[in-house]
Design a protein that fits this description.
With 269 residues, this protein is α/β, with parallel strands linked by helices. Helices cover 46% and strands 15% of the residues. It has a single domain, classed as Rossmann fold. The protein has 9 helices and 7 strands; from the N terminus they run E-H-E-H-E-H-E-H-H-E-H-E-H-H-H-E. Helix 3 runs parallel beside helix 5.
Length: 269
C-alpha cells in the first residue's frame, strides 16, 4: 500500500494522534507536512519525521494561515494530494473550573467555551479544507478526524460532541461536492486514546466523583477503557494512522463519504 510520491498535509500534528498519523504516512513513502500552533513541537515533529518532512506553524482555524501553509507546500513539493484534518481540542481551554464544578456540563458552559469548541473542532476542518481544495490534485483525498463523541450523546462534552458531529456532516457534504473531481472525503472517529483531551476529561471526572479522588488521572482513564471497550485496551495513534493511510491509497479508490469508528467496539454498545 505504498504512497510513494504522495504529498500529505496534516493539521494539528505536533504530537498525539496527528504525529502518529504522520509517522504512518512516512512509513508508506509519502512526503508529509505537519502544521501546529506550537512552534517547538512543530520543529521537533519535522526532525522526528525525517529529511523529506516539513513543519509549519499555522492556525488550522484560519483560512488566511492555511492558504499560506498550502502555498508553501505547493512551493516545495509542487502539489498536494492528501489533507488530514486532525487539528482540534478535547476539553475546554477556558473556564474549565466552572464546568468541572457544575452538576451539568451543558448548564455550566459559557458562550465563550461553546464558541471555542466549535472553532477548534469544526472551523478547523472547514478553514483547512477551504484553503486546500483548490490545490488538491484530482483523485486526491481529504480525511477528517472526528470522534466517537459525534456518534451519540456526550453529556460531559456537549459542545465537543456537537462540533465533531458537524465534522461528520461536513465529510458527507464535501464527498458529494468533490466527487466530480474524484476527490474522496472520509472520516475517522477515534475512540479512547490517552491525549491532552483525556487529561482534561479525567480531571473533570475526578472533580465531580469523590470516589475517584485517590486514583491518578491515568488510572481513571484505564478503568474507563476497560469498562467501555468490548475488544479491551486503548486505541493508539497508529490505529488511526493505519486507516488514514488506507483511505489515502488507491485501495480505497471507490470509498467516499464514509464514517468509520476506530474504537474497539465502543460505538456498537
Amino acid at each position: 500500500m505504498s504512497l510513494q510520491g504522495k504529498v500529505v498535509l496534516i493539521t494539528g500534528a505536533g504530537r498525539g494522534i496527528g504525529l502518529g498519523i504522520a509517522h504512518c504516512f512516512v512509513q508508506q513513502g509519502a512526503s508529509v507536512v505537519v502544521t501546529d500552533l506550537d512552534a517547538a513541537m512543530t520543529q521537533a515533529a519535522e526532525l522526528e519525521l525525517g529529511k523529506d518532512a516539513m513543519g509549519l506553524v499555522a492556525d488550522a482555524a484560519s483560512q488566511v494561515a492555511m492558504r499560506d501553509a498550502v502555498n508553501q507546500v505547493i512551493g516545495r513539493y509542487g502539489k498536494l494530494d492528501v489533507l488530514v484534518n486532525n487539528a482540534g481540542i478535547g476539553g475546554p481551554l477556558t473556564q474549565f473550573e466552572e464546568i468541572a464544578a457544575s452538576d451539568s456540563a451543558f448548564l455550566g458552559m459559557s458562550d465563550e467555551v461553546w464558541d471555542e469548541q466549535l472553532m477548534f473542532n469544526l472551523r478547523t476542518a472547514f478553514s483547512s479544507s477551504n484553503a486546500a481544495v483548490p490545490h488538491l490534485s484530482d483523485g486526491g483525498s481529504i480525511i477528517n478526524i472526528a470522534s466517537i463523541a459525534a456518534l451519540g450523546p456526550t453529556t460531559m462534552l456537549p459542545a465537543y460532541g456537537a462540533a465533531k458531529a458537524g465534522v461528520v456532516h461536513l465529510t458527507k457534504t464535501l464527498a458529494m461536492e468533490l466527487a466530480p473531481r474524484r476527490i474522496r472525503v472520509n472520516c475517522i472517529c477515534p475512540g479512547l486514546l490517552w491525549t491532552r483531551a483525556w487529561e482534561l476529561l479525567t480531571t473533570q471526572m475526578q472533580a465531580s466523583q469523590p470516589e475517584l479522588a485517590n486514583m491518578s488521572l491515568r488510572q481513571i482513564f484505564e478503568a474507563t477503557v476497560a469498562d467501555m471497550t468490548p475488544l479491551g485496551g486503548e486505541q493508539t495513534p497508529e490505529d488511526i494512522g493505519n486507516l488514514a493511510v488506507f483511505y489515502a491509497s488507491d485501495n480505497a479508490r471507490m470509498i467516499t463519504g464514509q464514517i468509520v469508528a476506530v474504537d474497539g467496539g465502543i460505538s456498537t454498545k
